[in-house]
Amino acid sequence: MKPTSIEDKLAVNKYDIDKERHIQIREDICATCEAHPCLYACPADCFKLREEHITFSYEGCLECGSCRIVCDKEAVEWALPRAGFGICYLFG
Ligand code: SF4
Ligand code: SF4
After folding, report:
1. Which residues does ligand 2 sit against, CB inside 6 Å?
2. pTM for this entry
3. Sites in the chain below the pLDDT cut of 70
4. Ligand 1: which atom is nearest the Cα of residue 37?
C-alpha cells in the first residue's frame, strides 16, 4: 500500500546521519526573529518553537534547502552532508 500521510512518507526514507552537522543555525540571530518562516517551510519539521526559542535538529533533514532560502536573516549555515551520509529516499 502506498504511504499517504507525511509521516508515512517520511518513514520510508533511510538516513545515515552524519555526526558532523551539515546545517547550523545562529541562535543569537533567531532570538531576534519574529516571523520564524523556517517553521512553516521545513517539510521535515526540523525547526520547533519552544517557549519562544527556536530549536533545530538536523537528523531528519531532507536536504531540500528551503530553510536557507526562507531565512532572510542569514541565520542558516547550510551544506550537504559529507559523501555517503544523509537521506536515501523511498528506501523502505
Ligand atoms: S527564519 Fe532564520 S532567523 Fe528566523 S528563526 Fe528561522 S532560522 Fe532563525
Ligand atoms: S534543508 Fe529542508 S528538510 Fe533540511 S532542515 Fe532545511 S528546510 Fe528542513
Report:
1. 23, 41-44, 46, 61-67
2. 0.88
3. 1-3, 92
4. 1
Which residue's CA is the nearest one to ligand 1's atom 8? 30
In the chain, domain spans: 6-88
Q: Contact at 8 Å (CB) between 22 and 64? A: no
Q: Torsion-angle region of residue 13: left (phi > 0), alpha (psi -120 to 50) or beta?
A: beta
* pLDDT tens track for 77-92: 999 999 999 999 887 6
CATH topology of domain 6-88: Alpha-Beta Plaits (3.30.70)
Q: Ligand 1: list residues with CB < 6 Å.
A: 25, 29-30, 33, 36-38, 54, 71, 73, 75-76
